[in-house]
Amino acid sequence: MRVKVISRSADEFTRERSNDLQRVSRNYDPNLRTQEKAVEYVRALNAAKLDKVFARPFIGAMDGHVDAISCMAKNPSHLKGVFSGSMDGDIRLWDIASRKTVCQYPGHQGAVRGLSVSTDGRILVSCGSDCTLWRVPFASGIESDDSSDSSDKTLASYVWKNAFWAVDHQWEGNLFATAGGSQVDIWDHNRSQPVNSFEWGNDTVISVRFNPGEPNVLATSSSDRSIAIYDLRTSSAAIKVTMTTKTNSIAWNPMEPMNFTAANENCNCYSYDARKLPEAKCVHKDHVSAVMDIDYSPTGREFVTGSYDRTVRIFQYNGGHSREIYHTKRMQRVFCVKFSCDASYVISGSDDTNLRLWKAKASEQLGVILPRERKKHEYMEAVKNRYKHLPEVKRILRHRHLPKPIYKAGLLRRTMADAEKRKEDRRRAHSAPGSMPRKSIRKNKIIQVIE
């Protein structure tokens, strides 16, 4: 006679130490767990709610400037180093970890209009009424605690025909570009005269950015509402697109260097492919006033914008609406924003003389995270992504508390847009068929493209 018995080895389920976790054996047959999807849905709902409970994005403010902060720059070789320039000519190097000033650079008589750091992190370029090169302290200077009163001397100073409005350093090489008057000048560290100059039109150039993938390509925006792309190898302009409103700032995508995003006066941001400028790839909405500055995350998947409406927003690179909005009662008009070099933090500079440090993910846990905690966070994130399309989860994830002026201004903008659309539909209905073709929102703000 054959007898079936259950045979177990004590080593399979007995803990070796009292601190070890209990071994649990599971059967993953779906027929045994008929409520699996319902349980996961409840977990997704709870994870979305917990995100709101733990959303504390504001870390701290860095004060020291006595006038509005006009520009910022990251130090590519030091994770903690951030430069800021103010309207009274003061330039400071900040240590983000301690939120203290490491070094000051006195010298500009008027407002600092632009800052940029070389790729090796050794040279800082600043511009205002003149353009100045500064030596940047090494990591040892940033680490020391008693260097708050130190200041570094000027390496070189350049004065040209016009005051400078913007500056950007080449990603690879010793060249940097300045925007002053109606022309863009290319400078070398070791020369007192520009090595090249570009001019297209008679209006002031207000921003300039080098391409991270192709060091010899740069994009500029002007007060005549145009965006132009120049190539240093051919010493000529490549293409120019004119929009209905002015572009305040430009940022290239570091992971997809053929794409860039423009921060516009009409409250929107427009992402373009430099190879196909007659049409925007994506229109990013949500701001209710002019977008003043923009910066991409090092991952290339997100970018941050600062606006005249006193808010900071984070967008997906291909998302039409913002993922996150940051605001405080004391923060005034935001003139400059930057992502940190590790994509974990956002720094904003505003009219109230303060730099503010924010978390890129509002509910992210700071400090050391245990492996079990990390797995738990990853699981909750996966469950949220799986059920994010369901109404209740979607409503919780999308909801943001807005200041009353921002909320009212958003309602007014939507009302105006709806009225304009109704007016256009009525005009089309009472016009000859085909006389008023529909234009995509990605094309209707572009007036002309000149090659």
What is the strand and helix layout of this fold?
Elements: H1 10-13, H2 36-53, E1 58-63, E2 69-74, E3 81-86, E4 91-95, E5 100-105, E6 114-117, E7 123-127, E8 131-135, H3 139-143, E9 154-158, E10 164-169, E11 175-180, E12 183-188, E13 196-199, E14 205-210, E15 217-222, E16 226-231, E17 236-243, E18 247-252, E19 259-264, E20 269-273, E21 282-284, E22 291-296, E23 302-307, E24 312-316, E25 322-326, E26 334-339, E27 345-350, E28 354-359, H4 371-387, H5 391-398, H6 404-429, E29 446-450
Antiparallel strand pairs: 1-28, 2-3, 3-4, 4-5, 6-7, 7-8, 8-9, 10-11, 11-12, 12-13, 14-15, 15-16, 16-17, 17-29, 18-19, 19-20, 20-21, 22-23, 23-24, 24-25, 26-27, 27-28
Helix pairs in contact: 2-4, 2-5
- Portion of residues in beta strands equals 35-45%
Spans where pLDDT lies below 50 across 5 or more residues = 144-151
Shape assignment? globular
How many E strands?
29
In words, what does this structure look like?
Strand 6 and strand 7 (123-127) form a beta hairpin. It is built from six helices and 29 strands. The strands form seven sheets. A five-stranded antiparallel β-sheet has the order 14-15-16-17-29, with no helix packed on it. Strands 1-28-27-26 form a four-stranded antiparallel β-sheet, with no helix packed on it. Strands 2-3-4-5 form a four-stranded antiparallel β-sheet. It has helices at residues 10-13, 36-53, 139-143, 371-387, 391-398, 404-429; strands at residues 58-63, 69-74, 81-86, 91-95, 100-105, 114-117, 123-127, 131-135, 154-158, 164-169, 175-180, 183-188, 196-199, 205-210, 217-222, 226-231, 236-243, 247-252, 259-264, 269-273, 282-284, 291-296, 302-307, 312-316, 322-326, 334-339, 345-350, 354-359, 446-450. It has 451 residues and is α+β, with helices and mostly antiparallel strands. 34% of the residues are buried. Mean pLDDT is 89; it is low at 144-151. The protein is globular. Helix 2 (36-53) crosses helix 4 and helix 2 packs parallel to helix 5. 17% of the residues lie in helices and 36% in strands.
